[in-house]
Amino acid sequence: MAKPKKTAYQCPLEACMDIIGGKYKGVIIGHLIDKTLRYSQLQKLIPHATPKMLIQQLKELEADGVINRKLYPVVPPKTEYSLTERGKSLIPAILELNRWGMKYLKEEKIPCAYKGKL
Known about the structure:
By secondary structure, this protein is mainly alpha-helical. It contains six helices and three strands, in the order ααβααββαα.
């Protein structure tokens, strides 16, 4: 069940965090920059996410108009995800958060498996 939409916020940042603040939402958006991925590909890219959590995060991003979900009627079912125009407008913010995270990890000497760029 999708979360109910709020009808009022105290500030714009609250609205933004409500949409992208889920545990894996920013990571999902990052992986969908400039590509379309199947559900199984997202599972492999985000191995710590349980299937239930990943599906919930994808449904919430779709409900908020950030990602497109395309279901192909084949056996087994094939589902693809891509960014909407609204989702694409988040790319600069996601890239900046990624840069901030890399700097933080380096400063704190915390290892990270991520070696590429978003």
